Structure formats: structure tokens, C-alpha cells
């Protein structure tokens, strides 16, 4: 929250403004060596596969804390608990009402209740289990607003650009 002193003639008053950080700045503060990156989605539903696409690219670039979970993040619960990760970053396609290809970073509680996930897996249950059973203290979702959710194996051009921006962030962050 930013605090500004505003002057109007002889009087002044304080204005408090909530400033939402850019997703890249927020992500820089969230990620550390105890963070696992999990790409989820369906690669046969076009843009829904963006999380898997990004996770596969990061894995091929040598990032070692990457899980390519596809549509079953719950299958990785035991692994995450045993590895003592403190944070989980889920990359997924989310219907959050933004512009097609827009990227936003959300807390898990914020996303699973407010917006439509593009798959049926209840992420709040995943979050609850990981938080209770393991060392995980924080879960965020790096969400990409999809353009096309039809059957198909390729990403739409706008989502490819968003995926490239995310991959570029990690390449420079590494």
C-alpha cells in the first residue's frame, strides 16, 4: 500500500493507494531454491496446455525444480511433501476475465474461489493437503488467460507469446 501526501490549497490529507505489482516483480519475491514449479493443463485442449508447455521448456533448459503434472497435480502430493519444498508455483490456464494472453499471479485461495479453472481438479483441495502434510508455506498460480479451449494440440499465437514471456522471465531469473 502506497502512502501519498496530497496538498489542496491550505489543507492536506493522506491518500492510501493499493498498488498491484507487476507479475514479474511479485514472482521475483516469491521464488527461491525451495520453490517447485508445476505445469498443469490438458495438452489436447489448445491453450489449456500452456502450463505443461512452459514446464516442459523449463525442464529442457535445466531447471531442476519442475513438475510436468498435466491434469493430475494431486498425483504429485507425496513427492512435494517428501522433497520439503516450501513453495509451489502452479502455471496454468485460468479464466480470470482478463485480456486473451494476459498473465497474472494469484494466491491459491484467491484463484480457486473466484475464477473458473480450465480443468476439473479442485486446486483448493491440493492446496489444503500440501499445506497440512508437508513443509509448503505458500502456493501461487501464474495464470494465463486462454483464447482457445477447443480440442487441438497447439497453442494460439497470443498464448505462445505469453508462454515465451514467462519462459524468458525464468531464463533471465536463473
Question: What brief labels describe this structure?
Answer:
single chain, 34% helix, disordered N terminus, two-stranded antiparallel ribbon, 174 residues, alpha/beta, globular, Rossmann fold, 6 helices, 6-stranded mixed beta sheet
Describe this structure in words.
This protein is of the alpha/beta class and 174 residues long. The chain has one domain: HybD-like (Rossmann fold). It is 34% helix and 28% strand. It is built from six helices and eight strands. Strands 3, 4, 5, 6, 7 and 8 form a six-stranded mixed sheet that branches. The longest helix is centred in the last third of the chain and has 17 residues. The protein starts with a strand and ends with a helix.
What value does the Rg take, in angstroms? 18 Å
What share of the residues lie within helices? 25-40%
Unreliable runs: 1-19
Give the overall shape: globular
Beta-strand percentage? 25-35%
Number of domains: 1
The CATH first-level class comes to: Alpha Beta
Number of strands: 8
Task: Quote the CATH topology.
Answer: Rossmann fold
Helical segment tally?
6
